[in-house]
Specification:
- It is a single chain.
- This protein is an alpha+beta fold.
- The chain has six helices and nine strands.
- The strands form two sheets. Strands 1, 2, 3, 4 and 5 form a five-stranded mixed beta sheet that branches. It has a four-stranded mixed beta sheet with strand order 6-9-8-7.
- Strand 3 and strand 4 form a beta hairpin.
- It is globular, with a radius of gyration of 20 Å.
- About 5% of the residues have low confidence.
Length: about 190
Amino acid sequence: MSDDFDRLRRLRPDRLQPHDPMDPKVLTEEKERLMSAIEQSAGAVHATSRTPSIYPRLAYRDVMAALEFLTRAFGFRERREARLEHPAGTLAWLEVGDGVVMIGESGPDHHDLYSPAEVGRTTGMVNVYVHDVDAHHARAVAEGARVVMGLEDMFWGDRRYEALDPEGHRWHFGERLADIELRSGRRR
């Protein structure tokens, strides 16, 4: 295929070539790679600092303990500059990839949201795609997460597992099998 960029590609070939399908995931990864290079050279603000159009809010009896666990065991990053601490409670925003989850106090004064530990059952599940789900699983187990569904490859093309945090919120972590194959350089 010939287009206006052929001369440029010969000078500096990119991994994304015209014969590649216009896969949004490939384009997103290339954008992240470019933004990371720009940030490192210019010291710019992290590219994923914008809040997605939709994000969950989870209620915890002990927000600070939840914050510590979620960052330590699941590798989430807190948007520390966004934390709100006030007499009625704390709100914190956690990032993973391009996703965000808000955590806050539970109870009738907090939108009538409750922790699974208070109601005695899981009230929802948050699905999270991660890079290297096997390493993520090992980290979560080492940090005390209660795995309720072990690692397995699924017919729809994901490798996944599920775990509960200390208050009983259910987390589903997965990675696309195609991404694992690309990373490892082999077919599963």
